[in-house]
UniProtKB/TrEMBL annotation:
PROSITE patterns in the record: MFS
Keywords, comma-separated and alphabetical: Cell membrane, Membrane, Transmembrane, Transmembrane helix, Transport
UniProt GO MF annotations: transmembrane transporter activity
A Pfam family matched in the record: MFS_3
SUPFAM superfamilies listed in its UniProt record: MFS general substrate transporter (SSF103473)
Name of the protein this chain belongs to: MFS transporter
Listed GO CC annotations: plasma membrane
UniProt topology in membrane: Multi-pass membrane protein
Cell compartment(s), UniProt: Cell membrane
The keyword Coiled coil is annotated on this UniProt entry: no
Amino acid sequence: MADTNSPAQSPLRLPLFRALWIATIVSNVGTWMHDAGAGWLMTSLSDAPIMVALVQAATTLPMFLFALPGGALADIVDRRRLLILAQLWALICAGLLALATFQGLTGPGLLLGLTFALATGAALSAPAFQAIVPELVPKSALPEAISLNSLGINISRAIGPALGGFIIAAAGPAAVFALNALSVLGVWIVLIAWKREAKHATLPAEHFTGALRAGARYVRHSPALRTVLIRSVGFFVFASALWAFVPIIARRELGLGAAEYGALLGSMGAGAIVGAVFLPHVRKVLSANGLTVAATLLFAAVSTALAFAHNFAQAASCMSLAGMAWITMLSSFNVAAQTAAPSWVKARALAINLLVFQGSMAAGSAGWGFAAGHLGIPNTLLIAASGMVLALGLALRWQIKGDMAGNIAPSSHWPSPIVAVDSPTDRGPVMITVEYLIDPTRKADFTRAMRTLRRIRHRDGAISWALYEDAAEPGRMVESFVLESWLEHLRQHERVTHADREDQEAVRGFHLGTEPPLVRHLIAP
């Protein structure tokens, strides 16, 4: 595990991160080659357009179905083992497809089924891949590491389809599927060699369904994560228009051939590379929020310019700038999401962030496609660019910061509860009451401060929360919150962070007297 206190250094100087980064690029190139090969093979197996469209559906649908379950698994099991199994699954599925295609046994159903299976493995492992990044690099290098991962995706997107097309022409789709299977081996070997530091848990792992609920509850009650999701929707819904129309602009508006279209996409990848190189330097000048505003304005300007591009050179210039803005936004939102979620729920939070990203892109593309049918592509791009600029109003209230949630390391400052009953672990529900004595004239200020505490209680496991005042003694305030079980309350002890401690101390500042607030633990019989 990386030393989070070590000085800033390039993540690529760290052998484990460097090996995994290179291996992941190779694997992603194989994935893009598979996508090209699967689509091409389906055109040979069926004349129905719906069958060709189903190849894309089989590739994207698993992300919506399995990303959140994958995030829950990554938070309750060993992430390294989960990733190793996912790579083994991908190797088996890709190998079976290659073997069947070499033998001439692949039909539409088998092609769709194995493509869906491959994408399912990728969806289940995607949150874990994102969640392990803080384990591979120091905290100071996290933004650059995330930028490099985004860069790797753009590199593979630029190389994969073009290389896949060349191999299909030379050796057929079966060769592409075989190479995709081989591309998985690098990641698998790096993960096998990784000596991940074992984490010794004092409590049993969460149940799967409970982990899903806990992840959704955390995101719902985390202002930092809600900020990331709101800003993501405000950008990606409008940015999806450019992605949706690039193929049509290239073929119909500019009359480009397949090779020029590939070069057009490659120019965006080149822009992303340049952006990744300069991004660490720009971060020293602009705040995280200012960086997202600047990148959004650049992307909006590029979308507008692309609407009026008349030749390949103009379009390629636009795409290069779009690549710079795109990787800036991806990196900024991913860094914000990473720093907003503690380790125990990180993969689930990142999975929800991934779902919002994918959903915004899918819904936006469909909506802009419908609008273009009535308004034309140039007008639709102008509307999307205008909407992107207007959505920057969100940056005033929901600001992206370099450290979204403060110090989210566990503080372990809650004292262990005194227990006199037998084996309370599996009993519940559990009610916790905290009794405060405050100056009645400060009741309004105290109540406002308790809103933050209410959010923390809900976020870390409480299923209900309330605040009461003693009718017979003004100033005696009783906070109560309920958890599903005693075990969940013990987990709540482990989840409290240093940032939470600061908020709790602010509330304790209202308490009068030398004794601390009286805490009671009540378990249902």
